Amino acid sequence: MVEMLGLLLIFMIIGAVIAIETKNLLSSVISVGAVGFGLSIAFLMLRAPDIAITQVVVEVLCLVILIRATISRDVTGISCDREFFAVVCAAVFLIAIFLFGIKALLALPEFGTPVMLLIKSAPTNTYISEGLKQTGAANIVSAILLDYRAYDTLGEATVLFTAILGGLAILRRKAKKEVTQIVEDKE
């Protein structure tokens, strides 16, 4: 698994360098998206599915926002004479993402197998055995969410709400401009 994470890290570094060095804004946004989805695959491989899901949601919202902003600023036509190297790099990129995703899914335990049985030192074992005694909560779910993982839960909720508000702000601004143009045209 360490080798796969190393390869994934190299993939993400290459994607970040491409995002910085390319002159086409849309290619840069796509490369940033590939880095973000690579990060979510890394979270899956590290057995952190909650963080992987949060990363995917934030990544999709950010990509929608960035693509919308990019398309409005960078209008380019599609030409028939594409560079061979660019097409090969894109194909390799897509195949690498696909292979890492398949590898991450195959590394997951069988559905229904509790992770706490696979890893004896998992924090869940401590939460279940000593959670109610240590926290004094009425139930174990409240103890875990509000006592043991309060900052993590707050951070995830903050990231999600910030991404949604950012998306709404960018998408609403364009719609507001279109409404004012329609009102001006009627006058």
Task: Describe what this molecule looks like in 3D.
The protein has 187 residues and is mainly alpha-helical. The protein has a domain at 2-108. The chain has helices spanning 2-21, 25-45, 49-73, 84-107, 115-118, 123-135, 140-148, 150-186. The chain starts with a helix and ends with a helix. The mean pLDDT is 79.
Helix proportion: over 70%
SSE order: HHHHHHHH
Averaged pLDDT, please? 79
Give the strand tally: 0
The major pleated sheet works out as: none
Write a short abstract of this structure.
The chain is an all-alpha fold.
Write the layout of secondary structure elements.
Layout: H1 2-21, H2 25-45, H3 49-73, H4 84-107, H5 115-118, H6 123-135, H7 140-148, H8 150-186
Helix pairs in contact: 1-2, 2-3, 2-4, 3-8, 6-7
Features:
187 residues, 8 helices, mainly alpha, 0% strand, single chain
